[in-house]
Design goal:
The complex is a heterodimer of chains A (about 350) and B (about 325). Chain A is of the alpha/beta class and about 350 residues long. Chain A contains twelve helices and 14 strands. In chain A, α4 crosses α5 and α9 crosses α10 (about 285-300). Chain A starts with about 25 loop residues before the first strand and ends with a helix. In chain A, about 50% of the residues are buried. Mean pLDDT of chain A is about 80; it is low at about 1-20 and about 320-340. Chain B is built from eleven helices and no strands. With about 325 residues, chain B is mainly α. Chain B has helices at about 5-10, 35-50, 55-80, 95-120, 120-125, 135-165, 170-200, 205-240, 255-265, 270-280, 295-320. The chains are: A alpha/beta (about 350), B mainly alpha (about 325).
């Protein structure tokens, strides 16, 4: 999957990923949603989500939740179209909701019934007959690691356990796609890790395509195969995780002093270094990058204290990308070029 | 990146990937929309009686049922002593019935709707393969059935107790003929009270507040209607119009009569009475006068209240689903 710019034209390429993953599970074409009062939540979003685990990244208010509601057929788009698992979101909302498991962002659990009863009931609401709903509720709760506690009232659960119940109810109806809205919301670091591992396992071992909406970029890097970043209802970038990280191979150079001089020297040698805390970061173009850095430091006679090859956190890429949110700007093209390399 | 790409890339259609966790696909039959609505209605009916809830949730429904059954038990006892039937099928025990149903609706309607609002579980329902109106529809069907059961079980008990104490086919038939209008009235009560109760309860996510709203509206309107009826009855007496025992209002002058009839429009319970009398109910219960031709107005007002409540309920959930 290539990044399709947000100008609104459809991606002409076949919607298969370079990694050979299946056809897109979600496709949107120039999707626009304007709320009453002229609030634009989605502005001509054209993007495709492949199978596997895909991160939907955006700050609060970027349009993630609106996109999910449109995909579930609960909100009618102002313009454009969206397809989920091949079904049109406007016409076949019922069909889509039968195939998709949804985990909302906020708290959505009653406190005074047991997890088993709740997940069973939600399975019934997904159209399962009574016996199948009971069986699948027990299975789902086992999968999310709540087998022992499933007869306890949900009100007695910790936040992490509640998040698992929310995931279990989404799994109960045997979805062909999972939409998870901020699944690590409110969890402590240990709970976060556990939840992410769970999502990763569901995606990899159960073979269920998953879209994880999150504003926490650092997490996404760990568990996603692909990434879709949106901002102000527009597509910022969509790519496989590989391309994202390949583009972000950098060399961290820390010298005790003369940082500015080194930066100028590197620029003279054709390397674009940028300050990172007290050090410099240089994108690695190839072996000659190392040579150029070595020569530059030697030429200036600087005291080198650290030289480290690092894989960028995706978060850092986006910190840069913030400046180039406008599509088609020069630097965006530069980043695209970096991806191709 | 730690995801195993080859495993993640396997198409899910290929029968799933069986690992230690043993995730299993479900390929069995699925309920359609109607089936899901029926399941939710049944679930709502059960929660109105506290099933699949703790013991605490069952206290009120059980007390309500026992209280309403008491007159039937007393009647059976009296009839076994050779007395005629002391409780009517259509009015039953009016004060008790008004009171018990008010409490039941006020406490159990929030159980059905306010709980879901409070726990914010609605997005989970709306992400299921149903249409927006289906959720309130299922709640309405379930609650109507719950009220119907509370209304009819004592009547059937009354019937059983009476039939056991009469002899001969014609006597049994007489009891049966008297029972049927009573059962049909239950339908009117149930569809009306369920609509009013659920709409009022759905206005608040706080259960106590919802219960208070329902109770206050039902009790206040009832009190208002009763007071107005009392005033009209009193003024009729004071103005010298003879009002002997018997159906009140039947002998009042035409001007007072109309005011009295209008007074009966203010509460669901007096509306039920008015419609019952209009439809030919003979036994007297409340202060409500026999409305005569004015009974059409009673029926229309009742239908309008139910229609407004239901459209209000539907509108409530049209808004809620987008939040």
């Amino acid at each position: 999957m290539r990044a399709s710019p947000s100008e609104g034209q459809a991606d002409p390429q076949p919607l298969t990923s370079p990694a050979g993953r299946g056809a897109a599970v979600i496709e949107t074409t120039a999707l626009t949603k304007v709320y009453p009062g002229n609030v634009t939540a989605l502005a001509g979003l054209t993007v495709a989500f492949p199978s596997g685990v895909t991160g939907l990244i955006g700050a609060n208010g970027a349009g993630k939740s609106t996109l999910i509601k449109v995909l579930l057929g609960l909100l009618e788009p102002t313009q454009g179209a969206a397809k989920v698992l091949g079904h049109d979101c406007v016409k076949d909302g019922m069909k889509i909701r039968q195939l998709v498991g949804y985990m909302p962002e906020h708290d959505c659990l009653p406190t005074d019934i047991t997890a088993t009863e709740f997940v069973t009931h939600m399975g019934r609401m997904s159209g399962l007959p009574a016996t199948a709903a009971r069986e699948r509720a027990a299975e789902s709760l086992r999968h999310v690691g709540l087998h022992e506690e499933r007869y306890r009232q949900i009100g007695t659960y910790s936040t992490g356990m509640k998040q698992r119940v929310k995931l279990a109810q989404a799994l109960a109806g045997d979805p062909r796609l999972l939409l998870l809205d901020e699944p690590t919301n409110g969890l402590d670091p240990a709970g976060r890790n556990a939840m992410l591992e769970l999502i990763e396992r569901i995606g990899a071992e159960f073979g269920i395509p998953i879209v994880v909406a999150s504003h926490l970029l650092g997490e996404i890097e760990r568990i996603c195969d692909g990434l879709v970043a949106i901002e102000a209802g527009r597509l910022l970038r969509a790519d496989t995780m590989d391309s994202f990280t390949r583009a972000s191979q950098t060399l961290l150079i820390e010298v005790d002093d003369g940082v500015d001089a080194l930066r100028a020297e590197l620029a003279r040698r054709g390397l674009r270094a940028r300050p990172y805390q007290r050090a410099l970061l240089v994108p690695i173009g190839g072996d000659d990058t190392y040579d150029a850095v070595r020569d530059a430091i030697a030429a200036l006679g600087l005291p080198l204290s650290r030289l480290e090859q690092r894989r960028h956190q995706v978060e850092e890429i986006f910190r840069d990308d913030d400046r180039i949110a406008a599509p088609g700007s020069g630097e965006h093209g530069e980043l695209e070029a970096a991806d191709v390399r | 990146m730690s995801v195993d790409m080859s495993s993640a890339g396997r198409p899910p259609a290929a029968g799933g990937v069986i690992h230690d966790l043993g995730y299993q696909r479900y390929d069995g039959p699925r309920l359609g929309r109607a089936g899901i609505v029926a399941a939710l209605a049944w679930h709502s009916f059960r929660s109105a009686y506290g099933f699949s809830r703790g013991a605490k949730a069952k206290i009120l429904p059980v007390i309500a049922m026992i209280a309403l059954c008491l007159p039937a038990v007393v009647n059976a006892f009296a009839m076994s002593r050779g007395n005629p039937r002391v409780v009517d099928y259509d009015t039953y025990s009016p004060v008790l019935r008004d009171l018990v149903l008010t409490v039941f609706v006020a406490v159990q309607a929030p159980e059905l709707v306010s709980r879901d609002l409070r726990s914010r579980v609605l997005p989970l329902y709306f992400s299921r393969p149903i249409k927006p109106g289906d959720y309130p529809l299922a709640k309405y069907l379930g609650f109507t059935a719950a009220i119907l059961v509370l209304f009819e079980v004592p009547l059937l008990l009354l019937y059983g107790g009476s039939v056991a104490n009469v002899h001969g086919g014609s006597a049994v038939w007489a009891q049966t003929r008297a029972l049927i209008p009573g059962l049909l009235l239950g339908l009117m009560w149930a569809v009306s009270l369920a609509a009013i109760g659920l709409f009022l309860a759905s206005l608040s996510a706080r259960r106590g507040l919802a219960t208070g709203t329902v109770a206050i509206v039902l009790l206040l309107t009832y009190t208002l209607a009763e007071i107005l009826l009392q005033i009209e009855t009193q003024s009729a007496i004071n103005s010298g119009v003879a009002r002997p025992a018997g159906p009140p209002g039947a002998f009042a002058g035409p001007r007072v009569d109309l005011a009295e009839k209008v007074a009966g429009l203010f509460s669901p319970f007096t509306l039920f009475e008015g419609v019952r009398r209009w439809l030919g109910g003979t036994s007297t219960a409340d202060n409500v006068p026999a409305p005569g031709a004015f009974g059409v107005v009673y029926a229309l007002v009742l239908i309008a209240i139910v229609a407004l409540s239901l459209s209000g309920l539907a509108a409530r959930y049209r808004r809620a689903r987008l939040s």
